[in-house]
Amino acid sequence: MQQKCVKCYHVTKQSLEFTLTRLFMKVFRTASATVVIECQRNFCFLPVVLQIQIRTARFLQVFTATENSLCLLFYDNAAEQLCDMFREHNVRTANQFANAVYGEFTVVEQ
Q1: 58 and 104: one domain?
Q2: Exposure check for the chain: N or C terminus, fewer CB within 10 A?
């Protein structure tokens, strides 16, 4: 069951990314994926996958700070996932995480 959910989640992200890419292609009248990526960089519009990572980090940070008894049941799992995300970018808060992700995306590769 969990494997089906993960697969469905991955397909949904791909579908959203495809839709976003096609939207940029129509707006800028191009068929080049390279041009679309460059337009996303210039307009600071992150790909769907990165937007989801940032939103997840922000949600988990608020979730782990909540003292709700129901939230406490899942605290360990949420805190572990959040720590893994922060460790990957060497940050301590969700805002720092967002800044790091934006920084990595907007760096122009030469």
Answers
A1: yes
A2: C
- The two structure tokens encoding residue 91: 């940050």
DSSP per residue, 16-70: HHHHHHHHHHHHTT---HHHHHHHHHHTT---HHHHHHHHHHHHHHHHHH---HH
Count of positions (residues) in the chain: 110
- Let me know whether 54 and 92 are in one domain: yes
- Domain residues for 98? 46-110
Backbone angles phi, psi at 29, to 5 degrees: 50, 60
Q: Tell me the pLDDT of the chain (110 aa) as tens digits.
A: 545 555 556 667 788 888 888 988 999 899 998 898 888 888 888 888 899 999 999 999 999 998 888 888 899 999 999 999 999 999 999 999 999 999 888 875 54
Please tell me whether residues 74 and 28 are part of one structural domain: no
Q: How far apart are CA 110 and CA 96, in angstroms?
A: 25
Q: What is the pTM of this model?
A: 0.77
* Other CB atoms within 10 A of residue 77 CB: 11
